[in-house]
Amino acid sequence: MRVGIPKEIKNHEYRVGLTPDSAFDVIKHGHEVVVETQAGCGIDFDDDDYRRVGATIVDSAAEVFAQSDMIVKVKEPQLPEIALLESRHILFTYLHLAADKPQTEGLMASGATCIAYETVTSPNRSLPLLKPMSEVAGRMSIQAGAHYLEKEQGGRGILLGGVPGVAPAKVVIIGGGVAGLNAAQMAVGLRADVTIYDISNDRLAELDTHFGNKIKTAYASQAAIAEAVRTAHLVIGAVLVPGAAAPKLVTRDMLRTMKRGSVVVDIAIDQGGCLETSRATTHDDPVYEEEGVIHYCVANMPGAVARTSTFALNNATLPYVIQLANKGAAQAMADNEHLAAGLNVSDGKIRIEAVAEALDLPMG
Fold first, then answer.
1. Residue 104, phi then psi, degrees to nearest 5
2. Is the pTM of this model over 0.90?
3. Active site residues per annotation
């Protein structure tokens, strides 16, 4: 099979679908790898690094798509990329369709087989291809929040960990999954006052055991979230419903109760965001203010630490890339039900219920 690696074109996106080492592993299995020139240059992989492992370098994304059977990316395809997709293609990347009807309709029109990293499952019901980027985004959310709490950035002028004699900032994390756990680890390390909210009592018990007395946990009722938001200096939205749009757990009315210069970081923005006031931003223009509160809603947060993120993502995705290349999409998914859970669109039809419901489109 010919595996194509286009250069990412989303704003400030420097990650790459396969590193040279990953490309070498694919080639070792008897496949060809076609890479768009400078696809890895943002993280210091030049074209010669790919040539040395046996990959072919081409001059444009159009050539990658034309010469390849499977396209391996990082971010969801942009409109110029969707236009290059054909029914013969396998697309393997993050899609986050539940918050993006135009992309969904474009993928349906292409007829391609579109497998989303974020809905591939594992035997323990986790999301192994979403996990590494959730870890990165969770950790980055605290860095970003701490930065924008600084007065010079328009924030309230609060040091996250305080100092002796001055209380630390109150950090509220809504969602105790992978992103929430990693956000908490960073916030605890900076000595913030951390509370995690979740609707799973079992998960809250796990977090309590993991952190001991370093954090507080609370059930995420609407009233509890409203009170938490009112007193928080930094709110991290880390809610995930696999494949579906994120629920709007923080309303505008709740936001109005926050202190001026407080900060919210919505990690769930790829799925539409879990704040009523959230809208996607870019690394070029990462924040905006609503109701006196700074919003950081960058839709590709891990792209800011592209080298770390690319290695972490490749570690997780490479075995699935090889399965797809070795067997083709149909056989690979027939043999691996967890990979099959990643199928979002094929033959012009939506194949995942959560996306069909979120977009009010028929499911195939």
1. -60, -45
2. yes
3. 96, 270
